[in-house]
Automatic annotation (TrEMBL):
InterPro entries: DprA, DprA_WH, DrpA_SLOG, WH-like_DNA-bd_sf. Belongs to the DprA/Smf family. Pfam families: DNA_processg_A, WHD_DprA. This is DNA-processing protein DprA. The gene is dprA. PANTHER family: PROTEIN SMF. Residues 86-295 form the Smf/DprA SLOG domain. SUPFAM superfamilies: MCP/YpsA-like. It comes from Paraburkholderia translucens. Residues 343-401 form the DprA winged helix domain. It comes from the Bacteria.
Length: 409
């Protein structure tokens, strides 16, 4: 999804308003509704602004920027020029539509990676930073399955459940989005530098915080509000009674999103938050299919694909699945469509694309470009056929984006 980036003057006005101390996003949205673009807001007299959004907002708008503002603007423009980086403003057609349903959408979004993932159907998976091995396994399994059904997995890049959710999301066509509580130029926690780099290359990282903003405890409830805003539903995997995940669930409920929780042992401390949410009306779920069904998302995996999704999939598979563009993603998702009752779930001999691709594949590593040349297949069809063959166990994806026939003992 490509849009014309804001000019320096336009971005300066957006940045000034986004940094104005005391100017709340809801008040800014009122002013934008009344006057249009930020340049027009900044040109209004204080009494006119006050009539629309109140005295405090008017004073915040017209307060002169600090001495560091020009340097901040230069840093933002330089960051935007780096590969994969984008800044989306509230008036941009590329602004995530789900966030526009919030009462206080951020005026500026800093995005690293695939912007189109912010326009897909999405589910959040969140939970404890001190997750149990079972919680980690459940989060990754749910995320892998949802992503295989072309649902984008959203989480907060924290330790524990969040990181497992991102890793599972990277293993399917739905991909993953990390919403962070720092500036987009920083990674927190530091242990997740490699994961953040993989997400920025194959998924998307989203921040509303100015560049250079460090991790502060007060930032994370606001980050949780963005996680809730982006998705159709939130799944709580493990949570203590006092947990940031429960804040995300409460915010999601207030925004009209669905809330789900995985049950656990009555003796497990990290089950208590989930049980509390269930008592308060969250939907108890035991399988990712229940999440898809409750949200009205088409259940796409066939039986073979479903079984494959439950197996641990090497992280290199993200290179195939997440590199798909919008058209290729739709084609690849067709690999999961329920077959007609009279058809077997998967038979390569009956599929001309997969048969042609198998003939072109050797038992030595082959690149995507060579396969495209040998088969003369379009990108979307090639990606979809490769995905079907991977799920059937006929193709192995190697590091570096190379493919070869699987060896069957």
């Amino acid at each position: 999804m490509q849009t014309l980036p804001a000019t320096r003057i336009e971005l300066a006005a957006w940045l000034r308003l986004s940094l104005a101390p005391g100017l709340k996003p809801a008040a800014l949205r009122m002013l934008l509704g009344a006057f249009g673009l930020p340049e027009a807001i900044l040109a209004q007299p204080q009494d006119v602004l006050a009539d629309v959004a109140g005295e405090a907002a008017a004073r915040a708008v017209l307060a002169p920027p600090g001495p560091a503002f020009d340097g901040q603007l230069d840093a933002v423009l330089a960051w935007r020029e780096l590969p994969g980086n984008q800044i989306v403003t509230l008036d941009d057609p590329a602004y995530p539509p789900a966030l526009l349903t919030m009462p206080d959408p951020p005026p500026l979004l800093y995005i690293k990676g695939r912007l189109e993932l912010l326009h897909t159907r999405a589910v959040a998976l969140v939970g404890s930073r001190s997750a149990t091995p079972q919680g980690i396994e459940d989060a990754r399994r749910f995320a892998r399955y949802l992503s295989a059904a072309a649902v984008t997995v959203v989480s907060g890049l924290a330790l524990g459940i969040d990181s497992a959710a991102h890793r599972g999301g990277l293993e399917g066509v739905g991909g993953t989005v990390a919403v962070i509580g720092t500036g987009a130029d920083l990674v927190y926690p530091a242990a997740h530098h490699a994961l953040a780099r993989q997400i920025s290359e194959q998924g998307a990282i989203l921040s509303e915080w100015p560049l250079g903003t460090p991790a502060r405890a007060a930032n994370f409830p606001q980050r949780n509000r963005l996680i809730a805003g982006l998705v159709s539903g939130v799944v709580i995997v493990e949570a203590a009674m006092r947990s940031g995940s429960l804040i995300t669930a409460r915010l999601a409920n207030e925004m009209g999103r669905e809330v789900f929780a995985l049950p656990g042992s009555i003796h497990a401390p990290l089950s208590r938050g989930c049980h509390r949410m269930i008592k308060q009306g969250a939907r108890l779920v035991e399988t990712p299919d229940e999440v898809l069904e409750e949200l009205g998302f088409t259940r796409r995996p066939v039986s073979n694909a479903g079984r494959a999704a439950k197996r641990a999939v090497p992280s290199e598979h993200a290179g195939l699945c997440i590199s798909l563009g919008a058209q290729a993603s739709q084609a690849a998702t067709a690999a999961f469509a329920d077959p007609a009752p009279s058809e077997p779930a998967f038979q390569p001999a009956l599929a001309s694309d997969t048969e042609r691709l198998l003939a072109a594949l050797g038992h030595s590593p082959t690149t995507l470009e060579i396969l495209a040349t040998r088969t003369e297949m379009q990108d979307a069809a090639l990606h979809a056929a490769l995905l079907r063959l991977e799920l059937a166990g006929e193709v192995t994806l190697l590091p570096g984006g190379r493919f070869m026939r699987a060896h069957h003992d």
